[in-house]
Amino acid sequence: MGRQIACLLVALFVVVAAFVGMARAFSPSFDQCIGKAKADKQQTTDKEGPALLAETIGSYVGCSGEYVEANKNVITALALIAIAAFTCTLWLATSRQALLTREALVADKKAFVFPIGLYQILISIFPIAILKLDCLVQNSTAPSASLPRHRTPQ
User: Fold this and answer.
1) Partners of 122 in the beta sheet?
2) For residue 137, which of 126, 121, 148, 125 has the smallest C-alpha distance?
């Protein structure tokens, strides 16, 4: 359970870092917003440590909100493409599973014999020793309570 939570937190961190990195790299308005927030913070106070980190995180959250609001149509389109791709994947997997289920049902109705045990028999006739294999088989179409067991011919 702890490992799953750690993986979830790492994945969340990677997604947020990728979002902020892409917003800074490809959006001049996001970069201007961050620059303006930094300039405002430096003019009003000279904080260090946790207080500066909290203000930096706050400015990134605020600028991210503005970026999302400005690009909401593009983000919605990308989300719809991801949902469509996932739906297509589910459709293909379900179709394949239906074919496999049909094949399994057809195979279940056919009779076949399968081995249930393999035994070694050592026949020793001085000076020759012969190793024979003996196999027990079952019929697949018989009810499981009364499955006949047949020995292979010697």
Assistant:
1) 131
2) 148
Please give the single-letter amino acid code of residue 59: S
**What ranges make up the beta strands (E) of 22-108?**
none
- For the question of whether the overall pTM of this predicted structure is more than 0.70, the answer is no
Which residue ranges in the chain fall short of pLDDT 70?
A: 43-51, 106, 109-112, 114, 140-154
Which two structure tokens, joined as six digits, stand for 26?
Answer: 């490809």
d(CA 154, CA 137) in angstroms, rounded, equals: 14
Q: Tens digit of pLDDT for each residue in 93-114?
A: 998 898 888 777 767 766 667 6
